[in-house]
Amino acid sequence: MYTDLLQYIFSGLTGGAIYALIALGFCVVSNTMGIVNFIQVDFVTLGGMFMFSALFALGLPTVPALVLAVCLVALVAMVVERVGLRPARSDNHLVLIFLTVGLSIILRGIIKIVWGKNRMALPPLTPDVPVQILGASVLPQALWILGLTVVAIAILTWFFHKTSLGLCMRAVASNPTAAAVVGIASGRIRLTSYAIAGALGGLAGVLVTPITTLNYDVGVLLGLKGFAAAILGGFGSFPGAILGGLGLGLLESLSAGYLSSAYKDVVAFVVLLLVLFVRPKGFLGK
Amino acid sequence: MTGRQNLLYFLSLHRTGLFATLMAAALILFPYIEDNPYTLGLTNLIAINAIIVLGLNLFIGYAGQISLGHAAFFGLGAYGSAIATVTFGLPPWPSMFLVAALVGLVALAVGIPVLRLSGHYLAMATLGLNYVVHTVLLQWDEVTGGPSGFAGIPSLSVADVVFDDPVSLHYLLWGFTMVCLLLCLNLVRSGVGRGLAALAGDETAAASLGVDTRSAKVKVFVLSAVLASLAGSLFAHCYSYVSPDTFGIFTSTDMVIMVVVGGMGSIWGSVFGAAFLTLLPEWMEIFDTYKDFVHGGILVLVLMFLPQGLITGLTDMIRVRMALWRRDHAAA
């Protein structure tokens, strides 16, 4: 009974960490550009795909492959922003959001052509020998996920509070007009926010695909849940994204454990609709 | 005024009605010219898609909102009709309208809380709804038949006429589409429609001029859901078989692409968008491999270069050119 609960909590935290990473990516872009970036969904898939190619096509060891995969996704994200979004020169949110939907479909098409439609398996970062923690058996991959998520959040915090680029981004997020007045170049900020969103999504993809298997649309569901997590915590708030992600992960694994596993994926959206109903700003929204 | 001017004035005054009459005449004659069942099957699919796109376009183009989940209402309509007629043995016509009313209630329940919020919440909530509906259709197999689908849905009939061959379905489906088209054309010219157009332009301004923006958004959302549900019922009775894959989130994005291609806020464009996207696979041999690529590409290109949609964008361009030409000639 107690071990079951502990087991569910661990798997919930693992899934929650992934949602948190994706949710953070959504928040970064939303804060600086004011739009929902549906391409985030494909950054997750791309992370897994690049990891797969780096490991098997290039034969790299795990850690360089992970770094390479995350960097490549960030690069793709920057290209997408520069080539796909910026030329539109529109401030109509309807157009911009649909544009990200279109770019996401294109990216998914490219992934399908390059890597094919078959399901692939990605090996875990370290061999699968379950570790016993307080009576629950935990896969090392879960520990990697939790550890690297904490590292990513720490780096982000440092970036947003200590570097000049990060401070510029926070300035844009808090007041775009004032930021433009003091001479912060908006193009560079947009590019950076896409790179960060790509890196976060890519990292989530690299970490989660050994558990879920890899497929051209694996990111869709994960990405949507990441978005649900972001809204749950309060869209645009970083602590909210982390809290929302973990909360959603826990809810999901507890409901899968105690209610029904067939409808596990539905929980996220039912919760989302309920939250929008009761407290549309999310837990930590302004 | 001369007789020619009078005629031109009459034509421009009644252009909408004339277009609609011409289209109805063309549709009535179409099966006499083209009797290939395959082609008629395609045009029938266009009719079904056009009904959904008309409703969705009112919501996106006129109310300026985002829905990425209209396939959910489409699916609820289709499965609703299937379950009502096969499982409960109800007659098709009443059950179709009963289901549409129920789907309208679902839309109302989702719409009231969510439409208080701005764009992306709505996009996500509708997407979430679509996902929930799709999963339920897949998983609740004792009621919906699960992944293998739901077969044996009876055809619609009026008196002795059974709508089960392409030609009779052509008249049935396009009849519905024309009614919806006329409904939408009249709606956007009414006070409600003007209010909606104002809402799409600037919500604050519309509200300050006395448009009840929240209730207008909810109403048009419900209307679009009801239209999607009707289209779903027609789809179910037309093919006598439905499966969950038809109603996934990718169908919803396809619907959005149809709206954008046809032109946000263009009623005639909706029919064009539905036709264009439905026929596209027929024109391209390699379509299967590059489907996502082509669909996404069309969406991105249209949004970048003709954000008003293909038809509206091109006619606007021609209109500007003509105005410029007239000015130059007047000067010369």
Automatic annotation (TrEMBL), chain A:
Q: Where exactly are the transmembrane stretches of this chain?
A: 6-29, 41-60, 66-85, 94-115, 142-160, 191-214, 226-251, 257-278
Q: Which CDD domains match?
A: TM_PBP1_LivH_like (cd06582)
Q: Which UniProt keywords apply?
A: Amino-acid transport, Cell membrane, Membrane, Transmembrane, Transmembrane helix, Transport
Family under the similarity heading: Belongs to the binding-protein-dependent transport system permease family. LivHM subfamily.
Main subcellular location of this protein, as a coarse class: membrane
| PANTHER family assigned | ABC TRANSPORTER PERMEASE PROTEIN, BRANCHED-CHAIN AMINO ACID TRANSPORT SYSTEM PERMEASE PROTEIN LIVH
Q: Where in the cell is it found?
A: Cell membrane
What would be one Pfam family of this protein? BPD_transp_2
| UniProt membrane topology term | Multi-pass membrane protein
Q: Give the organism, scientific name.
A: Desulfomicrobium macestii
Q: What is this protein called?
A: Branched-chain amino acid transport system permease protein
Automatic annotation (TrEMBL), chain B:
* Chief location bin: membrane
This protein's name = Branched-chain amino acid transport system permease protein
What is the topology of this protein in the membrane according to its UniProt annotation?
A: Multi-pass membrane protein
In which compartments does the protein localize?
Answer: Cell membrane
Q: Which residues cross the membrane?
A: 7-33, 45-64, 71-90, 96-115, 122-140, 171-188, 220-243, 255-280, 292-311
Q: Which organism is it from?
A: Desulfomicrobium macestii
Q: Read off the InterPro entries from this record.
A: ABC_transp_permease, LivM-like
Task: Cite the entry's keywords alphabetically.
Answer: Cell membrane, Membrane, Transmembrane, Transmembrane helix
Q: CDD domains recorded for this chain?
A: TM_PBP1_LivM_like
User: Which residues belong to the signal peptide in this entry?
Assistant: none
